[in-house]
Write a structure and sequence with these properties.
Blueprint: H1 3-16, E1 30-39, E2 42-47, E3 56-59, H2 61-67, E4 68-80, E5 83-106, E6 112-139, E7 143-168, E8 171-172, E9 176-199, E10 205-216, E11 220-231, E12 235-247, E13 254-269
Antiparallel strand pairs: 1-4, 1-13, 2-3, 2-13, 4-5, 5-6, 6-7, 7-8, 7-9, 9-10, 10-11, 11-12, 12-13
Length: about 270
């Protein structure tokens, strides 16, 4: 058995073994749920630019919000009876720049003074799309547990641009500009489990949870989410924590990336 196929087989067994309860019969009507959320994530990872070397990325949520150019996050779930389809999309576009200078002296004694200035900018754009079919392993008015099976696409690009200039005395140094760009698009097969449970005296509190694991173009990817929410007639308000880890392999220009942080959202059901 190939290692990647073995990973999915073990994951499938881990998902199915604890679930002996069978899904109850449910209505054949269509059930829709749309969720809009904001993921306040920290980002870390490592890259390798073709010019040689690459930055280790450690970006906190404060820096991301300051450098955010555009983002879009949301999911759509549709169920009919035991079967369903889920679609989750994240787009993130962040960029930041940094400037630095260094003064120096050429020659003995006081010599000739000069300075070198560096201006650099790093831009990160990423798509994360998970689409999967779902099947209800257990469900009632208080809870639901779904098996999910599908695919995940991650598309990431990073661009590093720099400009070097300066002067020696009254003479400007010849400026130098450069740019390096790396990108990767991976597709992985995904299997996982997700669900929710209502609890509390009023039955309005809800605990959603999610886990999946995937492999394919990537060595391994996995994500997990859990949290709390409150149910209204129109849907729920949710506060969860989500972690996503992507190991793309040593040969990939983007070796690994992970995202972690709280997630705030509203879910609308009809």
């Amino acid at each position: 058995m190939k290692p990647k196929i073995g990973i999915l087989a073990v994951a499938a067994a881990a998902v199915l073994l604890p679930l002996s309860a069978q899904a109850q019969d449910s209505s054949d009507g269509w059930e829709w749920r749309a969720t809009i959320y904001g993921w306040l994530t920290d980002i870390s990872g490592s890259t390798q630019f073709p010019t040689g070397g690459g930055p280790e990325i450690e970006v906190g949520i404060d820096d991301i919000l300051d450098s955010l150019d555009f983002t879009m996050m949301g999911s759509l779930q549709v169920n009919r009876g035991k079967w369903g389809l889920m679609n989750d999309v994240i787009y993130l576009d962040v960029g930041g720049s940094s400037k630095g200078s260094r003064e120096f002296v050429l020659g003995p004694n006081e010599g000739v003074s000069g300075s070198v200035e560096l201006d650099a900018r790093l831009d990160l754009k990423s798509w994360l799309w998970t689409v999967a079919g779902t099947y209800a392993l257990a469900q009632s008015s208080e809870h639901r547990v779904d098996l999910l099976f599908g695919g995940r696409m991650v598309d990431m690009s990073q661009e590093l641009a720099w400009s070097v200039g300066g002067n020696v005395g009254d003479n400007p140094l010849p400026g130098r500009d450069g740019k390096g760009k790396i990108s990767v698009t991976n597709w992985d097969a995904v299997i996982g489990i997700k669900g929710y449970r209502f609890f509390g005296d009023s039955g309005n509190w809800v605990m959603p949870w999610y886990f999946d694991v995937g492999t394919g173009d990537s060595d391994l990817s996995w994500q997990a989410m859990a949290g709390l929410g409150y149910h209204f007639n129109w849907g729920e308000v949710l506060l969860t924590y989500r972690y996503f880890d992507y190991d793309m392999g040593d040969s990939s220009p983007i070796a690994d990336m992970n995202f972690a942080g709280p997630m705030i959202g509203a879910s609308f059901a009809w």
